[in-house]
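Honest question from a wet-lab person: if I give you the sequences of every part of a complex, can you actually get the arrangement of the whole thing, not just the pieces? Trying it with mine:
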Amino acid sequence: MSKTLESARKVLLTILLALAIGAVFIIAFGENPFSAYIALVQGAFKGKLHLGTTLSTFTPLLLTSVAFCVAAEAGAFNVGVEGEVFLGGIVAAYLGVNWGFLPVPALMIVCFLGAMLVSAAWAFIPAVLRAYFNVSEVCTTILMNSVALQITSYLVSGPMSAGTANAQSKPVLVTLPQLMKPSNLNAGIFIAIIVVVLVIFMLYKTTLGFKIRAVGKNPSHADYVGISSKRIFITSMMISGMMGGIAGCIQVLGAYGYFLNNFAAGLGSNGMLAALIVRSNVLATPFMAFFLAILNSGAMGMQQATGVPKALVDTITAVFIIIATMDTLFEFKKNSTKKKAKKEVTEG
Amino acid sequence: MERQAAYVCLSLVIEKDEKMDEYVIEMKDIVKNFGTIQAVKNGQFTLKKGEIHSLIGENGAGKSTMMKLLYGMYPIDDGEIFVAGKKVEHLTPKSAISLGIGMVHQEFMLVNELRVVENIILGFEPTKGLTIDFDTARKNIRRYIEQYHLDVQMEKRVSQISVGEAQRVEIIKTLMHGAEIIILDEPTAVLTPQETKGLFRILHNLKEDGKSIVFISHKLNEVMEISDRISVMRQGNYMGTVDRDETSPVDLTKRMIGREVFLNVNRTETTPGEKILDVQDIWVSSHKETSKIRGLSLSVHAGEILGVAGIDGNGQSELVDAITGLRPVEKGKVILNGVDVTNKSPKKIRKAGLAHIPEDRNKRGLNRAMSISDNLSVVGIDENPYSSHMLLNRSAQHENAMEKIKEFDIRPADYTLPASSMSGGNAQKVVVAREVSLGKKLLIASQPTRGVDVGAIETIRNTIDKAKKQGAGVLLVSAELEEIMSLSDRIIVIHDGAITGELTAAEANETTMGLLMMGNAEEAKKEEGEAV
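Yes, you can. This is the full assembly:
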């Protein structure tokens, strides 16, 4: 328990330090950091529109960040969640536009299943390359992200195009119920939360979760006791891919109602950042995803109310990562108190 | 004037006399922590000129740490170190070397691709103009070879020489750097009995020449043979120093672990039953070499322990990996319990009746980041009682953990702690408890007591003997001759991937086995003949 407290304290200190460094930049822009941050918070929470926007930003981020964690539990560094979101989205759009012969509830389920299936298959490729041919999954997933982006971009500009000026698909025939209009928030947030809860339950309470964690912590031990590290690695990558697919599907059926070209840009990488800040701790990641969502949606409010550009938030996020990855940063204090204590003992 | 000169002379003599009594090394009240672990709580050590001083203790007692502190590899947290009567602070390996301290580490620090001569002069090359003066280097090295009988082949690459020879290279290196005090960290762990004898002769030569030697070990018979004085450590504490002539192995054991132990298990005589494991002419590649094992056959019957003796790295690991499905078999067959398990998955082989204590408990045997309870139930985690309907059954896991912790006296008893919080001995007990309690037909125990303290050794050996009594066939692979000889019913010796001899427990003695371990089958036979 004290360990959890300890890491919570660490994250809090990291947040404060990142905000402090951000404040230095704000001062450099000639603005008051306090009023800028207040504007940021107001931009994230004040009113239906702002709160709704924050929550709808949070929805895909929650899924992509936990998707990264699931793969990380098995020892994979899955940069490919973004590509999986794109593909999940395009599959949902295709089915949602063209499979109108199905009744609405069935079509909705089919959209989700199709998105999950294709994204899982997409994640299967780098997983197999890694498990059986020792090709770094980091490289392959980065490359496959561009491929996924180009495929979807081609489809919505060509065969699946709605013929509008923006590259986008025709509107889907089934949508998720909208909440807190006029924001983009939709019932997808509940789906995302349920999926994440199920995945966390899977990781800690089921045999499969045990195996995933065992493989992630020590693959040669897993092989020795009879858990095939290769198969489990692939399974966890596919679950991660599925979650990306769900995120894409929610964005298409819920947030937009059609496939908007390049809509997932940054969703995968921001989710990955949220996970990395808390070292892929699957219980802490949702909170970090929420925090990043606040930063992202509040940034617009900050830009409007003060002269601080939105891009500053990216700087703060980057500083965040750097600080969070510095393992020993907050250790110095502990050491000095320990030394003091020992000195007292020896002197006494 | 003359009188004054005489006076000076006299005082010099007196001073010299005093120096004789003084210690060349004195370590007082040493404390060293690694994070929250207290490696050394109260370390005391003194070294006289020209003595061989053994530092003994169980694994994790802090003996290696003490010497690494002396060599400046870590800074001390508290205490004082005196070298030749002068207090030294902020020791680094570099300053330790300049003070005449040399250390031969457990893991040799040699460059495999370079020749012996290059390794020895590395960092201290004599030069002639812009080139290295190899003639001078060779001349200097030859001096040490002759003076101390440190036989090394200077032109061979390190990868081509034996472990014993590599060790001599390390000793020459320390001497070249001007060492007067030589620390040897468990030097005999990797040697055959013959090589150990050779090392002891060298140590005597060095001692006669006035060098002071620290000998770290936990093998009492060797310590009794070589030492002048012996210091004992237990759990980071200094437990006293004794003269060799005033102590006995029993007394030392008591000091080391606080009670008497009987390491020689009373081997149970059983009548071997049906054939459990049949290895037929297998060929296996190692990580680096293709066909490390070339055509090896053996069989293990129910109710017997087959010991596999040999120097580390002669194919034992590859043999075990091949049988257990962790390394592909290129040719040949492995039959377990009547089922052909050649190149089957570890899971299938375990199903066919395998329990396996692996040689590397940190890499394979345990998942150090997971809890003790998880580690005790990880084999068969997807079956009853640990899982049902794809869900974990935590209470079954915990019940199992409590049972094993009690039966094997595993500490700490809190099974929710990660396996990394256990000492070597307890960690190994977890592996042994898990594997033996599976009650499988075949138990493979690979280096089951490596890096384990004396108390745990006793438990583990008795457990293995018990498994045999209950009808399991046991394949015991160990580099410890004494372990092989005290447990096995039959012994095979392997050298360079092939069996060089098979003996019964009654026939085995250290000399014969040592010769077989070096691949000298013929001489071993002669030796046996003479013994008869």
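Two things worth pointing out. Chain A has one domain: 2-332. The longest helix of chain A spans residues 104-133.
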